């Protein structure tokens, strides 16, 4: 079982889009996926449509609920979800006095079996608070989506520094599995330059797949479907299938 955090503290970097559509593309290849939505905005939760008013991450982390009671089938075959709720926005305050609060998710995951899912993908909020720390401590791998804009490169440098601190102090097993360039408009010189800069600085850590800007990707959440089901022939579906194949090729590691 691979536990992968999808993280970038910059908003608009396609974390939820990557979490949901990568999960769907993996499921097409018969991988069983659990999505954990740690973002109080709940975009992955909305997209994957778990049962209404069902227990979720807040119940697990703050109310000491069990993981099994809070995991639900999603609207997509082979994908389960541990949903977010608006209560998560108060989790930093609720957990402030908790000893080892940043390890709560990891401890809960350790009680799950390793045979129920092939992948656990953790969607994170656009901050480096307690929820994102929980993801980085619980995960063994990290995928970083980066928007095709020069300002995103500065945010990536900050995240890389944070990863090193987490490795040193909390989770030495955390590995950067890959950086994926998202929302890339290949018609613009600026987007191409950002991708070139990523490859120059991070080399083989950058996935070969580039997620192109695509209106169908933006439309898909409104219909409660990942791009592979909403428009299977779109460039967005093609790109996320390619990314899934790159991620699956890493299984041998």
Keywords, separated by commas or semicolons:
alpha/beta; 12 helices; 253 residues; Rossmann fold; 42% helix; single chain
Account of the protein in words:
The protein has helices at 15-28, 43-48, 57-61, 67-70, 91-94, 104-110, 130-138, 150-169, 189-202, 215-219, 227-230, 235-249, and strands at residues 2-6, 33-37, 72-73, 79-82, 119-123, 141-147, 175-184, 206-212. It is of the alpha/beta class. The chain has a single domain, classed as P-loop containing nucleotide triphosphate hydrolases (Rossmann fold), CATH 3.40.50.300. Strands 3-4-2-5-1-6-7-8 form an eight-stranded mixed β-sheet, with helices on both faces. Strand 7, helix 9 and strand 8 (206-212) form a beta-alpha-beta unit. Helix 6 runs parallel beside helix 7 (130-138).
Q: How is the secondary structure organized here?
A:
Elements: E1 2-6, H1 15-28, E2 33-37, H2 43-48, H3 57-61, H4 67-70, E3 72-73, E4 79-82, H5 91-94, H6 104-110, E5 119-123, H7 130-138, E6 141-147, H8 150-169, E7 175-184, H9 189-202, E8 206-212, H10 215-219, H11 227-230, H12 235-249
Parallel strand pairs: 1-5, 1-6, 2-4, 2-5, 6-7, 7-8
Antiparallel strand pairs: 3-4
